[in-house]
Each structure stands twice: as C-alpha cells, then as structure tokens.
Amino acid sequence: MDLLENKVAIVTGAGSGMGKAISQLFASKGATVIASDINEERLSELATDKIIPVVANVADENDVSKMFDKAKELGHLDILVNNAGIMDSFKTVANLDDATWQKIMDVDLNGPFYTTREAVQMMQGQDQGGVIVNVASIGGLFGGRGGCAYTVAKHGLIGLTKHVAAVYGYNGKIRANAIAPGGVATNITDTIKDVDPDGVKVAMSFGENLPIGDPDDIAQLALFLASDNSKFINGAVVTADGGLTVR
User: Fold this and answer.
1) Beta strand 8-11 with 51-55: parallel, antiparallel or unpaired?
2) Catalytic residue at 170?
3) Pairing label, strands 237-240, 174-181
4) Phi, psi of 157, deg, nearest 5
5) Of the given ranges (37-46, 102-111, 141-150, 179-188), which has the lowest mean pLDDT?
6) Residue 48's CB: how many other CB atoms inside 10 A?
7) Angle at 9 between CA 3 and CA 11, to 5 degrees
C-alpha cells in the first residue's frame, strides 16, 4: 500500500515551487490532493485524477471555505499543508509601510490561521484525526533572515504550529509540525521588489554562497511529517537549510 493511500490532503500555494512538488509527491503516494493557488494557469497544469485544483487566495476566508467544501465532498480531510507564502523584500521595521505589513500578514499568517481553524474543526470529528504541516522558514527562528513582516509572520506560524500540537495533539488526535526551510529554488523570489539594503545586509551577514535546496527536498520532508512514519513527532520545527544555520 502507498504511504498516503486513501488520504485526502489540502496543499496551499500549490501552483509552483515547494507546493507543486508536495502536491505531486503526495498524489504519487496515493493521496487525493486539493491543490490551491491564486494562479489558475499554473494550477490547471497540475490537474490529474489525483490532484484537484481549486483557485483560491488563502487570505480570503470565502476562498478558504471553497477548499474545505471540496474536502467535505470527498468525505474527510487527513492532511493540511500550509505552504502559501510571500516575502517582504527584506523591509526593516523603519522602512516598512502599512500596506506591505498587512499583505504579508494576510498571506503568511492569517491564511494559515483560517485554514488551520477549518482543518481542526473537521479533523476533530474524524476517528482518524489528521495532520497539519506548516511551511515556515528559518526566518521564523531568527531575527535577521528576512524583513520585519516576514520574520514576524513566520515566528507566528511556528507559534500556531505549537499551539495546535499542544492543544489537540496530546492524545494523538491532530498532529502539527513545521518545516523551516532555508534557501530553496522557488518563485517566491518573484515577490521581492525594491529591496531594503539594510535588511539584505543583515540577512547576508552570515556569508555568501548559500546552500540552495530543491523543492523536492522539502516535499520529501513534508511527506514524512504527513505520514504515519512520523506518528510520534508533534509540535516539532524541522530545519531544512543545508546546514546554513549551524554556522
């Protein structure tokens, strides 16, 4: 039997990069994947008999409801992967405008809150419970790996992970873990414009020639955390950065 046989998963930010790799890997391991993204064209390229595209913005509660309506049609939800995220061009607190702050919070923190709330409500009523995997960042572990808003949002996402693990995972019903990637070759850098030189200076202070991972590296870790192979892991934050932050 495949590792995720008969499982239903929601993956956000599935149109490209890590979300695409996670969706395709999960489907290859037997899961039916509800793949969400704001980019309809990219999503349409993903569609198969195992991957169901749902065009949705995680910052919009009505769009989030569409994902979960699809899961309810399928009868259950076993896995939620909160992967959708954008960056803030390394804007330091002194140079960060309200609009950028709000946009980052809406996508990187409010969105995972909306999806997690829906997932927990659904998973609690299932005999098999469920698993939540949040794609955070090394920016959520340190103060200078991203801009102000991104750093705060990713710290918040790790806090959300630990809260869910503590409240709902003590009896094994719902597990929640986070992945903290370093540099990964994805299109998230497309969201970086008008870079703040002060923020970049701090982020690059630990050196150049950074290790860059492949989206499949993160997908393989997400598969492990979503499967029963990690059934005794709850509330953990797993760093996947090629050793960057051990230096």
Assistant:
1) unpaired
2) no
3) parallel
4) -65, -40
5) 179-188
6) 13
7) 120
* Distance from C-alpha of 209 to C-alpha of 37, rounded to nearest angstrom: 31
- Give the list of residues 6+ apart from residue 115 with CB closer than 8 angstroms, or none: 10, 12, 58, 64, 67, 68, 80, 82
**Residue 7 Ramachandran class (φ > 0 left, ψ -120 to 50 alpha, else beta):** beta
At what angle are helices 98-105 and 148-168 packed, to 10 degrees?
A: 30
- The predicted-structure confidence for 108-126, as pLDDT tens digits, reads as follows 999 999 999 999 999 999 9
State the DSSP H helix or E strand holding residue 167, giving kind and residue range, or none if neither.
Answer: helix 148-168
**Type of residue numbered 207:** G
- Using pLDDT thresholds of 50, 70 and 90, give the confidence band for residue 246: confident
Task: Work out the pLDDT band at 244, boundaries 50, 70, 90.
Answer: confident
Which one of the listed residues 114, 150, 168, 170 is annotated catalytic? Answer: 150
Neighbours of 240 (CB within 10 A): 18
Taking a C-beta distance cutoff of 8 angstroms, is the pair 33, 223 a contact? no
Q: Is the predicted pLDDT of residue 202 greater than 90, yes or no?
A: no
